[in-house]
Amino acid sequence: MTEPVIRPLQAADEAEWRRLWKAYLAFYDTELPEEIYASTFSRLIGGGANEYRGLLALVDGKPVGLAHYLFHRSCWHIDNVCYLQDLFADPDVRGVGIGRALIEAVYEKAQAEGSKEVYWMTQEFNSTARRLYDRIAEKTPFIVYQQNF
């Protein structure tokens, strides 16, 4: 397999992006209404200052992974920090560096924006991803609380 090419999402990527994001959401036993898919993709490629951005990983021209990230203010830093919300690689290409390449691409984007921090969350049971995360970032002691309305 050739090295992955990581690039920003483009409007022509919508069908492949949906395929990948639906597979990502299925891993977490989640389905979303059509309006969220349409709105999210529009935001990812829209280029708005405070909107999420998207990256696509391609191997031999075929999309095999994605990342969604956001820059936002922090009370602990002057510059924005970067939140990596979604990261996914097709199961048939896991273990060959797709996830790592996507994270490193987000690191590069963050550094280019002057951000001093990239952070993300994963579920405790996601042992495959955590093996990678443990090698390329520091696990924090924080616990996430959430209230849905």
Explain this structure to me?
- By secondary structure, this protein is an alpha+beta fold.
- 35% of the residues lie in helices and 22% in strands.
- It is built from four helices and five strands; from the N terminus they run βααβββαβα.
- The chain has helices at 14-27, 34-46, 98-112, 127-136, and strands at residues 5-8, 53-59, 62-72, 81-89, 118-119.
- Strands 1-2-3-4-5 form a five-stranded mixed beta sheet, sandwiched between helices.
- A hairpin with a 2-residue loop joins β2 and β3 (62-72).
- It is globular.
- The model has no long low-confidence stretch (mean pLDDT 94).
Tell me the strand order in the biggest sheet: 1-2-3-4-5
Structural class, please?
Answer: alpha+beta
**Any idea what the shape is?**
globular
What value does the average pLDDT take?
A: 94
Distance between the termini: 45 Å
Q: Kindly state the number of beta strands.
A: 5
How many helices? The count is 4
Helix content: 25-40%
- Strand-residue proportion: 15-25%
List the secondary-structure elements in sequence, H or E: EHHEEEHEH
What Rg is obtained from the alpha carbons, in whole angstroms?
A: 15 Å
Contiguous low-pLDDT stretches (5 residues minimum) are none
Quaternary organization: single chain
Biggest beta sheet attributes? 5 strands, mixed
